[in-house]
Amino acid sequence: MPALSVAAGVLGLGLSSVSPASADPVPLPTTDFSLKADLKRGGTIDIAHSQGRMRVEIQKPNIPGSMVGIIDLKARSMVVRTPNLPTMAVEIELPPEYVLGALTGTGLRVGEDKVAGEACDLWKIDPQMKSALGPTTACITPDGIALRTAVEIKGTKQTVFEATTLTRGPQDQAQFQLPPGIQVVKVPKGKIGSALGIPGLGGGPAEAPPAPAPQAPGAATKP
Q1: pTM attached to this predicted model
Q2: Which regions in the chain score pLDDT beneath 50?
Q3: How many CA within 13 A on the CB side of residue 153?
């Protein structure tokens, strides 16, 4: 699924090294909110959260339409829709590298900062899998909202996600549901890479479902 590969750069990100003995659970969001953010390689992202569910909408300047993910943070599952498959969604296990608006796992508080006018704690994130990428640091508010994520790539620290606005308040629950008629295809555990096109997560870029094989002229059709 070519459009799913677009998500690799913003969803597939390595995590940093922190001693497990000194790590604390990374806080998850505890309040309803919406935010807008800029992405490293261009594009924007809109995030909404309510009651442990998160909606992520990514727009890239060179891609028509938008990619939408609906996440259950407690169940660690994610349903992804892409513009090229308007009637289909892919359900996957939430990758440990997910860093947009919320992070999971453990980490170490190493300082404080401010993003989009909001005070936030700097967290070094504990690695959850092998990765070729370097340390990851996130700035997370006291109520668990990740406002900025920076990753060391080839020795250079790069900001991959940074909020520009944040609004706390009740969210429309309809946005956390799939539209009627959407077919959901579940991707088995270990096939995350095939679904998202993330190298090293179990396969290469995903492909669209194969078309039925053509029948020979005059061949009988099964009822």
Answers
A1: 0.73
A2: 1-21, 130, 192-223
A3: 11
